[in-house]
Amino acid sequence: MIERTLSILKPDAVSKNHIGQIIARFEKAQLKVVGLKMQTLTPEDAKAFYRIHQNQPFFESLVSFMSSGPIVALALEGENAVSKTRSLMGATDPKKADPGTIRADFAESIDANAVHGSDSPENAAIEIPFFFRTLDLVLSSP
Ligand code: CDP
Ligand code: MG
Question: Ligand 1 pocket check: which of 8, 85, 113, 127 to mutate, most ligand atoms within 8 Å of Cβ?
Fold first, then answer.
């Protein structure tokens, strides 16, 4: 099924000049970029985006890291885009991520782990509009 997902290239990936290499992996996997935006999140933005984790012990450090520098938000479209993006990303902890995944190749720690990807179509439907208005998105694939 063709679906959409939200990915974020996190501040570590952006500061290390990995934007192009990570987007290339998505594109090579037949995911189409249908929205793209670079911005620096305020701590309030990051808190709102990650509110599902607000009771986790890592919440404050996650918010601080995600607002520490520019990020790139991507809306990706393709066959099974949510699970495909999660497979390309690898495990949350880069030390446990399979070889060849984005986190294994570009991330250095569980907090600075290079990318975000929606974990379900339901959350993708919440996360995409967090960053993109309808008018900011490509309407449909050719
Ligand atoms: O990003 P993912 O869906 O793989 O993991 P998550 O469990 O939804 O956690 C969200 C983010 O919180 C992770 O990507 C990490 O950046 C951060 N985190 C952390 O700093 N320390 C942990 N023990 C777990 C997650
Ligand atoms: Mg998650």
Answer: 113
Average pLDDT (105-124) is: 98
For residue 66, which ligand has an atom nearest its CA? 1
Confidence (pTM): 0.97
Q: Please tell me the distance from the alpha carbon of residue 96 to that of residue 101, in angstroms, as a whole number.
A: 10
Maximum Cα–Cα distance across the chain: 44
Q: Which amino acid is at 84?
A: K
Q: Which residues make Cβ contacts (< 8 Å) with residue 63, sequence separation at least 6?
A: 43, 46, 47, 50
Is 19 in contact with 79 (CB distance < 8 Å)? no
State the average pLDDT for the chain.
97
Do the Cβ atoms of 103 and 86 come closer than 8 Å? Answer: no
| Region of residue 54 (left: phi > 0; alpha: psi -120 to 50; beta: else) | alpha
18 is catalytic: no
